[in-house]
């Protein structure tokens, strides 16, 4: 007998090779096809789309403040977002255009990475590659997602963090024998605690699911990792200790760090809106979703389909968290389209599940891929409608302001546009460092004023009390009617784009604003934020003209232009209605209140004003007043007007009760005081 050769031939080979040598079928030896890197195609495709659409410079709202904090590695507004700061700083070091453009590109890069990671995250569910591509391409072309992917904002980074969390959680659910994923998930939970409040809710959701599944040993190993991840928050006190210009809240000690992380100042400022159902915010949130109707429909259907897959419940539950956060916890962000991006990403995953199910309806062949291919094609076609954000509005506005400001000016602003824009101008560009720019709402806070006084010690000596501005200081004031108006000097007059003393010698406010609009052109007014900013300037001018100078024609003209720029704003319609009422045109004023309530059904001022105008026309406004009182029984103004209505109808006892109820709430309510005086004068007690 010859020597056996099977043992020699198979020695040291893996099991499949041994089986082949022993005569097993050769199909076991065929290599499995490598997975196609479609995630890379999605990454580069979305990155290219966002890069081509990126704003070439600084944009409105918070972009300037966030960009300034990233550039100098400072501390942005609560909760500080250290991961955002570091990621954007890294991209800002690249020699690509100006700093603002680099920040915009950083947001696009993070957005593209979020889509690519989401593509990889849902792989355990077995969704076909083209279905995932189609669903996430719909996200890339959604206006809300695109808006944040082409400007300096934190939300695409939050989307990437959410996608990473889903990837780790799904791997942990589908590969329970692999201990790496739960540990990495604990690390992720710790890290995201310092990024965005909504991510903390998602982290809590995944942690609650993870806790019952982990043995005591796993929990003991995971807790230190979560703590290690949370150490990223140490960035905030360490950077604040270096005294950067942008050190919001100055979180150098434990108490200040806690206040900053928990958003104490923001919660205090918006306590009346947080946690209350805001119908206008709900309406705005829904309107954002309907801007991408295909994504919305396919995504919602997909949520139901995902419930049939292992762990699929997490996507609809996470989307519900996003909806509740946007409309209950932070309804203020809906107005500026700062909510809903994470929900759009989740809808894309749901859309992928729907496309996968549609493909199952057909036998293998071209028709099977038709539905997903059409969704992908539709997304790409829709993407061409994404505005190429040639947004030069804020830089032009700041240029106009810089040209008008006297040397060593004191500039008091209140809006995000001007506060953030000037932060970027001074910190990043080094422009007009002689101007002391204060945010009026933050004058009481040393962390906001100290960096300015360090740079301008002369100002501290000349201005010892924030409530008293010496006449000798060259002053400019962003009007913003209603914000600390009691502190505003009475001798201000328009000096575009602010108000100041003495009266400017340059072109009139209207002429300068008209010139700015011509410079912007139609393309520059595509962005809602640009139209809103110019409408705000016109509103400032209109309210100044009506309240300070009694210039009815000038006020009506300015408020009419503001309404034309932003016709979907209830505030613009209500302001113009008020101006028409001052002119005695009550019928038109009521029509404008109706339009305001059409855009914002819960707009209190518009409903209250409509009741006032109805009284002027001897009509019964009881329905409007009862609506207000039912919504808020402590509405002293509505109670007083209902008292007047009842008095006019002969119900003197009911009128007296309403007047007294209004005065218990607000002892200075003018209508109630006048109504009670009238009742006593006529003997109607």
State the distance separating the first and last CA atoms: 128 Å
Biggest sheet strand order reads 2-1-3-5-4
Give the helix proportion (percent range): 55-70%
Q: What structural class results from the helix and strand content? A: mainly alpha
Q: Total helix count? A: 35
Biggest pleated sheet: 5 strands, mixed
The strand count comes to 5
**Average pLDDT level:** 84
**What general form does the structure show?**
globular
Cα-atom Rg, whole angstroms? 30 Å
Strand content: under 5%
pLDDT below 50 for ≥5 consecutive residues: which ranges? 1-34
3D structure, described in words:
With 685 residues, the chain is mainly alpha-helical. Among the domains are: 1-32, no CATH class; 39-175 and 274-383, no CATH class; 620-685, Serine Threonine Protein Phosphatase 5, Tetratricopeptide repeat, CATH 1.25.40.10. It contains 35 helices and 5 strands. β1, α23 (416-427) and β2 (436-439) form a beta-alpha-beta unit. α3 runs antiparallel to α6, α18 runs antiparallel to α20 and α29 runs antiparallel to α30 (586-599).
């Amino acid at each position: 007998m010859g020597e056996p050769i099977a043992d020699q031939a198979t020695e040291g080979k893996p099991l499949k090779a041994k089986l082949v040598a022993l005569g097993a079928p050769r199909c076991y030896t065929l290599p499995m096809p490598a997975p196609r890197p479609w995630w890379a195609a999605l990454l580069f495709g979305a990155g290219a789309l966002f890069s081509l659409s990126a704003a070439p410079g600084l944009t409105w709202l918070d972009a300037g403040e966030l960009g300034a904090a990233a550039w100098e590695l400072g501390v942005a507004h609560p909760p500080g977002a250290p991961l955002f700061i570091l990621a954007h700083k890294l991209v800002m070091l690249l020699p690509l255009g100006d700093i603002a453009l680099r920040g915009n590109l950083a947001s696009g890069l993070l957005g593209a990475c979020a889509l690519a990671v989401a593509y990889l995250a849902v792989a355990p569910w077995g969704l076909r590659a083209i279905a995932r591509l189609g669903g996430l391409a719909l996200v890339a072309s959604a206006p809300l997602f695109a808006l944040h992917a082409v400007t300096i904002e934190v939300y695409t980074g939050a989307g990437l963090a959410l996608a990473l969390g889903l990837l780790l959680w799904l791997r942990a659910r589908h590969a329970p024998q692999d201990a790496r994923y739960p540990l990495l998930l604990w690390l992720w939970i710790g890290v995201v605690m310092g990024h965005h409040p909504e991510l903390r809710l998602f982290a809590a959701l995944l942690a609650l699911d993870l806790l019952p599944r982990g043995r005591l040993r796993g929990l003991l190993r995971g807790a230190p990792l979560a703590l290690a991840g949370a150490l990223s928050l140490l960035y905030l006190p360490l950077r604040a200790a270096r005294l950067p210009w942008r050190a919001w809240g100055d979180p150098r000690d434990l108490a200040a760090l806690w206040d900053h992380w928990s958003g104490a100042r923001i919660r205090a400022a918006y306590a009346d809106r947080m946690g209350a159902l805001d119908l206008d915010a709900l309406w705005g949130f829904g309107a954002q979703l309907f801007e991408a109707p295909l994504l919305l429909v396919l995504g919602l259907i997909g949520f139901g389909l995902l419930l049939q897959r292992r762990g699929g419940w997490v996507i609809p539950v996470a989307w519900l968290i996003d909806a509740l956060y946007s409309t209950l916890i932070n309804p203020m962000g809906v107005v500026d389209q700062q909510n809903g991006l994470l929900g759009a990403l989740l809808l894309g995953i749901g859309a992928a599940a729907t496309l996968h199910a549609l493909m199952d309806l057909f036998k293998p062949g071209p028709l099977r891929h038709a539905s997903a291919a059409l969704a992908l094609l539709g997304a790409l076609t829709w993407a061409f409608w994404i505005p190429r954000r040639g947004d030069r509005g804020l830089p032009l506005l700041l240029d106009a302001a810089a040209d008008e400001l006297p040397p060593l000016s004191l500039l008091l602003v209140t809006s995000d546009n001007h506060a953030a824009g000037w932060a970027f101008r001074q910190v990043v560009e080094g422009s007009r460092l002689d101007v002391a720019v204060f945010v009026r709402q933050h004058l009481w806070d040393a962390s906001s004023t100290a960096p300015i006084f360090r740079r301008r010690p002369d100002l501290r000596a000349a201005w010892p009390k924030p409530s008293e501005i010496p006449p000798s200081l060259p002053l400019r004031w962003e009007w913003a009617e209603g914000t600390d108006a009691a502190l505003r000097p009475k001798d201000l007059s328009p000096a575009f784009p602010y108000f100041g003393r003495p009266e400017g010698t340059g072109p009139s406010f209207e002429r300068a604003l008209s010139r700015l609009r011509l410079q912007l052109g139609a393309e520059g007014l595509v962005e809602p934020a640009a139209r809103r900013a110019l409408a705000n300037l016109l509103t400032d001018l209109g309210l100044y003209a009506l309240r300070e100078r009694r210039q009815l024609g000038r006020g009506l003209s300015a408020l009419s232009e503001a309404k034309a720029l932003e016709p979907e704003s209830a505030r613009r319609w209500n302001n113009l209605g008020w101006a028409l009422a001052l002119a005695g045109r009550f019928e038109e004023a009521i029509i404008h209140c109706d339009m305001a309530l059409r855009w914002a059904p819960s707009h209190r001022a518009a409903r209250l004003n409509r009741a006032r105008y109805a009284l002027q026309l001897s009509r019964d406004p009881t329905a409007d007043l009862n609506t207000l009182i039912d919504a808020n029984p402590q509405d002293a103004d509505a109670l007083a007007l209902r008292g007047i209505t009842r008095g006019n109808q002969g119900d003197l006892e009911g009128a007296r009760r309403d007047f007294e109820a209004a005065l218990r709430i607000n002892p200075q309510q003018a209508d109630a005081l006048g109504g009670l005086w009238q009742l006593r004068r006529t003997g109607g007690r």
